[in-house]
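Quick one:
INPUT:
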């Protein structure tokens, strides 16, 4: 029973970590400028682009159109939303099927519900891992590309 609770807590903490990356602004970060007076900071995430100057003024702009976004950004948005949704349902299913909760029917029914929750958590983890891998690959490939000088 203690192992079951420990696994549930670790899966729940992983889901919280995936949820905490959604509002984070610094998925991509770049600094430009040679002096303190002209330094600018550019950062972006899945939902908006922001720029800040050395005086502390920040200007954020949400992406204006869904049609103008790249396929990679659409894929990352969809995957992270799927990770959050499937993680939530995995948590509910796992909580219902655990031995320490008295919800459900027989022990076999609880085991099936717990297994369904585990599979849902696994899918959530795969979606989250694919999101961060795709975004990280994009950032590294843009940084290594000698032609792409927009954010260097």
């Amino acid at each position: 029973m203690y192992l079951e609770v420990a696994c549930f807590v670790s899966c729940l903490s992983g889901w919280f970590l995936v949820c905490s990356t959604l509002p984070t602004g610094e998925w991509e970060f770049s600094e430009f400028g040679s002096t303190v007076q002209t330094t600018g900071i550019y950062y972006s995430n899945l939902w908006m682009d922001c720029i800040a100057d050395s005086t502390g003024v920040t200007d954020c702009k949400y992406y204006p159109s869904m049609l103008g976004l790249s396929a990679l950004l659409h894929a990352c948005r969809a995957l992270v939303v799927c990770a959050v949704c499937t993680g939530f349902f995995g948590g509910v299913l796992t909580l219902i099927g655990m031995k320490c909760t008295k919800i459900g029917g027989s022990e076999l029914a609880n085991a099936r519900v717990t297994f369904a929750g585990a599979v849902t958590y696994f899918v959530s983890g795969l979606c989250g891992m694919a999101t961060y891998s795709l975004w990280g690959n994009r950032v590294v490939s843009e940084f290594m590309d000698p032609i792409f000088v927009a954010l260097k």
